[in-house]
Design a protein that fits this description.
Elements lengths: L6 H7 L4 H7 L54
């Protein structure tokens, strides 16, 4: 902890809440002291991997295709 730190600033910087920090450190108030060591709660999802999802769809070719113009004197099969 350094001068000017607050539980609110620490919580925001570490992606947690003031209440979570208080709970992790058995704090009954938001008062903290310079030099005080705090335990930070584990971030949600850090302990367990995300559930597997379906394989992503293959990329779609979005390049425009130019129309084919038959050469003069040729025919196209239909």
């Amino acid at each position: 902890m350094k001068s000017g730190d607050t539980l609110s600033k620490i919580a925001k910087a570490h992606g947690t809440t003031v209440k979570a920090i208080q709970s992790e450190n058995n704090l009954t108030t938001t008062a903290i002291k310079v030099g005080q060591k705090l335990k930070l709660p584990a971030k949600a999802g850090a302990a367990a991997p995300a559930p597997a999802t379906a394989a992503p769809a293959p990329p779609v070719d979005t390049m425009p295709v130019a129309p084919v113009t038959p050469l003069p004197g040729t025919t196209t099969a239909h």
